[in-house]
From TrEMBL:
It comes from Amycolatopsis carbonis. Residues 6-54 form the DUF397 domain. This is DUF397 domain-containing protein. Pfam families: DUF397.
């Protein structure tokens, strides 16, 4: 994920939690304010499940 383009969530606000996502062969998720802590990497299929679950809640 080193060369992946990280994008900050449009829902992130200056003073609250911020999330960045990188789309590559896999999906990377990390904390914008603590990038050194690492990242969570999941398959595209798993990420689609996360998004589907979030959409179902709204």
């Amino acid at each position: 994920m080193q060369t992946a383009l990280w994008r900050k969530s449009s829902y992130s606000q200056q003073e609250s939690a911020c999330v960045e996502v990188a789309v590559s062969e896999e999906i990377g998720v990390r904390d914008t304010k603590n990038r050194e802590a690492g990242q969570l990497t999941v398959s595209r299929e798993a990420w689609q499940g996360v998004l589907a679950a979030l959409q179902a809640k709204h």
